[in-house]
Amino acid sequence: MLLLLLQLYISLSCVFQVVRMFIVIVITFAICWLPYHSYFIYMHVDNSIVYAKWIKHLYLSFYFLAMSQSSINPLIVVGMNSRFRNYIYEIMFNACTCDDEPHPPRVAHYYAPATPPLFRRYSQSCSHSHSRSRSGKKPRGFQ
Questions:
Q1: How far is CA 124 from CA 59, 93, 96, 129, in A?
Q2: What's the whole-model pTM score?
Q3: How far apart (Å, rounded) are the C-alpha atoms in residues 74 and 33?
Q4: Residue 103, SS3 per DSSP
Q5: Left, alpha or beta for 141 (phi > 0: left; psi -120 to 50: alpha)?
Q6: CA pair distance 30, 72, nearest whole angstrom
Q7: Per-residue pLDDT for 138 more than 80?
Q8: What are phi and psi of 119, to 5 degrees?
Q9: Ranges of each domain in the chain
Q10: Mean pLDDT across the stretch 14-32?
Q11: What CA–CA distance (Å, rounded) separates 46 from 41?
């Protein structure tokens, strides 16, 4: 009974984390794109503002803010999702170091294999001399 309650608590906390991350992403989207769309709505109402000297700078700042939203989303996901953060850590660690021994997995708040399934094939070894095909045989030329 206690184990079921613990599993329920863990699953609900994961759901709440996803909902919280989704709300933050939606609010960030609104903050980034609202000035851009407000600018065009105001331009439709008052055409005389087009001739102001500073309007190009204002437009470019709104445009930059709107386009920067796509670079803010990954930062939000990395900051709020421990599983994604561990995947990024593993990719960066395997890209920066090239040793034959796999590094110990980081402690996470979920139950998962040490190496993510997506990158398991690529994170086993960096060296081509140790590479094997899916059948377990060494490729030709690497005897």
A1: 49, 12, 14, 12
A2: 0.59
A3: 17
A4: coil
A5: left
A6: 13
A7: no
A8: -110, 5
A9: 1-72, 81-125
A10: 92
A11: 9
